[in-house]
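Intended use. Records like the one below are meant for learning the mapping from a protein sequence to its folded structure. Do not use them to infer anything beyond what is encoded.
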Amino acid sequence: MVTATVDNRRFTREEYERLVEQGYFHPEERIELVDGVLYEMTPQSSFHATGVRMTHVSLEPFYREGFDIRSQMPLALGLDSEPEPDIAVVPGSLRDYVYSHPTTAILIVEVADSSLIQDRKRKASLYARSGIPEYWILNLVRWCLEVYREPKDGVYTSRTVLKEGDSVSPLSRLEVSIPVANLFPPK
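Structure written out for the chain above:
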């Protein structure tokens, strides 16, 4: 009996960017590259989009100088990953990224409803391996904020779950206290 094997085609970030430049994907198609695999991102509900905006607005006052808060824009993480996190606080200014995407962030936030499992596993692993010091999941399913810190060997070794009545202080701005309720869309 003959058996066939099927190999997955993995892409490098360079190959992926070349496909984007050549117009291989439809302009409205939302694709991201994680660990060499192209993933189609689900369409955003208005609830999800509001969570992204609420988080962006809540972080903005604390990262005006020396940082750029990017919403759903590429991060060049390694040779085979270019995710588009909902929020990424990156060092520098927007002018620093005219010719290339940022390669790191001090804080990444994913707003999760239908993507919760992927955000906890695939994305958390990628961000931890990339040395991102802090990763938040604004969990719209359980209505909580999951705060991941201390990346080591591809995993975050610290996980804290905060509820609406709690406050969060980003590692890079420990003097700041952001009410978790401010991140969520209105009920």
